[in-house]
Write a structure and sequence with these properties.
The chain has helices at residues 5-10, 32-43, 55-66, 68-87, 93-104, 122-131, 154-163, 177-186, and strands spanning 16-19, 26-27, 90-91, 113-117, 139-141, 170-174, 189-192. By secondary structure, the chain is of the alpha/beta class.
Length: 193
């Protein structure tokens, strides 16, 4: 299996490689419309009516208008939809292969720490990484680990702090404009996959 060639160049000299999850390591098969419908129904108890489009922008608006506790009430709904999505996920083979080979190299100064910073929930990422046949990553930051989400850099900054890596030592791999914006805000290097 070939590894995405630009990735091999981009990781040179980096001590931390952070992956986005959905769209980067794998494509989750989630019923997004069903999730949005159930989120809307759940949020109505807070007097918040939204189609949840775009998803995380609207969840951020809920946080700003009703508080973080209102958001935390929605996480079980998100989990209910993400969990079956993991079972049907499609791996990104050229990205998963890089992670697998890096893990097989063991630890040492020339092996970067692998991490995930995702808009998916922490448990979803842990379960999804395992379902891809990968060992657990040293650092996982999911949407439920922070109070502000992409394109904010909070989750990426937390991943760097937990791994003990600075922005110049960090490469963030992602697939969306929000991923790129988060990397820029954190001062980390970014590679679009």
């Amino acid at each position: 299996m070939a590894i995405y060639p630009p990735l091999l160049q981009a990781v040179a000299g980096k001590s931390l490689v952070v992956f986005d999850y959905d769209g980067t390591l794998a494509e989750l098969d989630v019923d997004w419309e069903g999730m949005r419908r159930d989120l809307r129904e759940q949020a109505l108890q807070f007097g918040f009516d939204s189609p949840f489009r775009p998803l995380w922008s609207e969840i951020a608006r809920l946080r700003d208008e009703r508080g973080i506790e209102a958001v935390r009430v929605l996480f079980p709904v998100v989990r209910r939809y993400e969990q079956p999505g993991v079972k049907r996920q499609l791996p990104r083979p050229e990205i998963v292969e890089y992670a697998r080979r890096t893990q097989q190299r063991g630890s040492g100064p020339d092996r970067p720490t692998l991490a995930v910073f995702s808009a998916n929930l922490h448990a979803t990422v842990v379960e999804g990484v395992s379902a891809l046949g990968l060992d657990p990553f040293g650092v996982v930051v999911g949407a439920d680990d922070v109070d502000r989400w992409k394109p904010e850099a909070d989750g990426l900054q937390l991943a760097m702090r937990l791994a003990g890596a600075g922005p110049s030592e960090t490469l963030f791999l992602g697939d969306s404009p929000g991923d790129r914006e988060a990397a820029q805000a954190a001062g980390a290097h970014f590679l679009s996959v």
